[in-house]
Amino acid sequence: MSSQEEISKENPPSEQDAAHGAVVTADDPFADPGLPAHQPRKQDIDERSAKRSERMVAILFMVSMLATVAFIASFVAFPVDKNVFVFPLGHVSILHLSLGVTLAVALFCIGAGAVHWARTLMSDVEVADERHPIEAPPEVKQKVLADFAAGAAESGFGRRKLLRNTMFGALALVPLSGVVLLRDLGPLPEKKLRSTLWAKGKQLINMNTHEPLRPEDVVVGSLTFAMPEGLSEHDENFQSEIAKAALMIIRIQPDEIKDKRELEWSHQGIVAFSKICTHVGCPISLYEQQTHHALCPCHQSTFDLSDGARVIFGPAGHALPQLRIGVNADGNLEALGDFDEPVGPAFWERG
């Protein structure tokens, strides 16, 4: 008999060692020591400590709820263009700072509360489970269900109502942060996309000379860009307004205009179309004199300006809107109204 067998016979594993997975065999000189004996936590033997831990977890969940409410309030209260000095970050947007801090606190407190709950109140008894085949026989299923029920009971989820209710409250409020963030995709367009600065009596101003356009300034085969009277490049809203009101002016021999309405809305063959492509809103800047085709440089959408600016090639979905024009008492070209339809690509609010 070997010395290892003698040792095994003289010192058989205790019941506690066997319960924790200790394995001692004669053939293995390096026996599996198993798991150490379970040491109960203070919360396991002292209900007052358990209550303190419960209150701490509840406080963390309630702080998360307050932070979520503060996130929503910050979104409403702080303007997007207000900056404050914060050391050591420097000047930062108070809106972005408050949203980041409150959302971080809300998520951190939920995580910290869950971790503290698991480490102090849920069962921490180590269990050694042997490997088993992939298939699950009925007895394994029963064991899993029994383990789940035991875990639920040990977690105190049903018994500790304060923890459960505050956790539900925190988890229910946090998703509201994501819903509120959808509002930050941009201001609601309302009816802004349906109209431009063009109106009856607005003169056509040359984008290059900033002078009113006269019929004699537009020659056959030329391409001129215009903007509404009263709009200046120094205006704060210039970019948003010119993105809708930019105009293409060309002159075509009246007998070459195929579309009847286009001819009626022109003045002596001078036609005005929106410069904004109806595909994704790129500015159109290429014009073929012989064919009267306007080409968008972004995705090659092509419009026939002699036939109502209809699409003859490319991904654009509809024709360029036309602006009805005439001549005022001073002999300058003027608009006789706004575009008859929204300019640019289609949008979600377009009826």
From TrEMBL:
Topology of this chain in the membrane: Multi-pass membrane protein
Organism: Streptomyces corynorhini
One Gene Ontology molecular-function label: monooxygenase activity
Alphabetic keyword roster: 2Fe-2S, Cell membrane, Disulfide bond, Electron transport, Iron, Iron-sulfur, Membrane, Metal-binding, Oxidoreductase, Respiratory chain, Transmembrane, Transmembrane helix, Transport
Task of the protein: Iron-sulfur subunit of the cytochrome bc1 complex, an essential component of the respiratory electron transport chain required for ATP synthesis. The bc1 complex catalyzes the oxidation of menaquinol and the reduction of cytochrome c in the respiratory chain. The bc1 complex operates through a Q-cycle mechanism that couples electron transfer to generation of the proton gradient that drives ATP synthesis.
Taxonomic lineage: Bacteria, Bacillati, Actinomycetota, Actinomycetes, Kitasatosporales
Subunit architecture: The cytochrome bc1 complex is composed of a cytochrome b (QcrB), the Rieske iron-sulfur protein (QcrA) and a diheme cytochrome c (QcrC) subunit.
Alphabetized Pfam families for the sequence: QcrA_N, Rieske
Name of the protein in question: Cytochrome bc1 complex Rieske iron-sulfur subunit
Domain Rieske: 244-334
Family as reported in the entry's similarity comment: Belongs to the Rieske iron-sulfur protein family.
Region listing for Disordered, in residue ranges: 1-48
InterPro entries membership: QcrA_N, Rieske_2Fe-2S, Rieske_2Fe-2S_sf, Rieske_Fe-S_prot
Broad class of the protein's primary localization: membrane
Gene3D superfamilies attached to this UniProt entry: Rieske [2Fe-2S] iron-sulphur domain
Segments crossing the lipid bilayer: 57-80, 92-115, 162-182
Localization of this protein: Cell membrane
SUPFAM superfamilies, per database record: ISP domain
One GO cellular component term noted in the UniProt record for this chain: plasma membrane
